[in-house]
Amino acid sequence: MSQQPVSTPPVCPRHPQTAAYVRCQRCGRPVCPECQVPSPVGVHCVDCVRTSQAGRRRVRTVLGGRPTSGTAVTNMLILACVVVYIAQFLLQTASIPLDRLLGFVPAAALEEPWRFLSTAFLHGPPLHLAFNMWALWVLGSVLEPLLGRWRFLAVYLLSALGGSVMIYLLASPASQDWVTLTVGASGAVFGLFATTFVVQRRLGRDTSQIVGLLVLNAVISLLGANISWQGHLGGLLTGGLLAAVFAWAPRDRRSLYGVVATVGAAVVLVALVLVRSLLVQGPG
């Protein structure tokens, strides 16, 4: 009576204890159910899929951002402003003026530097909040998908910072402006206005509408009462310059240019504050 050799079932290279009767259509190795990745033709192993994805060029938007169908950052910023506004109202009833603790005042800027950014999440009357959040939602829904999330967030935050820095630079210690409280996301919103203009120019689209909005808001800033045109100007310049780098950076070096421009803008703004503070304090 003859004996037949017992054949050993193939096993998955990643899971040697698991029998694998299906083979990868690319490398031909056995692949267990846990490591199988369905494809239009047969299945692939996870190693082949990972190698294929690593060699595939990442899809980017026309301005170099990662494609996104949502506006997560825009929604997050709006939610933050609304939550802070509710906190302002609730704490105000408890005699805790949140705006005076976090709003921007040039005289207190150096001792409490967080005010440069925290002020952008505070607002005055309800209409002030409503207009800024409406503008943020409209502009963000267009810019965030084009720029990508981190570039959009960088423009927003640095524009807000640029608005506070401009207030600090133009305020005189001998004037009332030095102790005047400023709150609002208007500097950041003006930065988004400037970014929209730059993007429209870069894409060859009509800019008459955004120019009209900028002119209208500039007139309101200059003629309106209790409006910080300095903050608007600072946000406008910061957002516009940063957006120009994002928009016209070489296609194959957009990420590098974007990071350098973002870090560089932050360093320049901080340097301007330090130089201004030395001039205010004087020698000795």
TrEMBL record:
Its main location: membrane. It comes from the Bacteria. Keywords: Hydrolase, Membrane, Protease, Transmembrane, Transmembrane helix. The chain crosses the membrane at residues 76-96, 116-140, 152-172, 178-198, 210-227, 233-249, 256-279. It holds the Pfam family Rhomboid. It is found in: Membrane. Residues 111-247 form the Peptidase S54 rhomboid domain. One of its GO terms (biological process) is proteolysis. GO terms for molecular function: peptidase activity. It is a multi-pass membrane protein. PANTHER family: PRESENILIN-ASSOCIATED RHOMBOID-LIKE PROTEIN, MITOCHONDRIAL, RHOMBOID PROTEASE. Belongs to the peptidase S54 family. This is Rhomboid family intramembrane serine protease. It comes from Actinomyces lilanjuaniae.
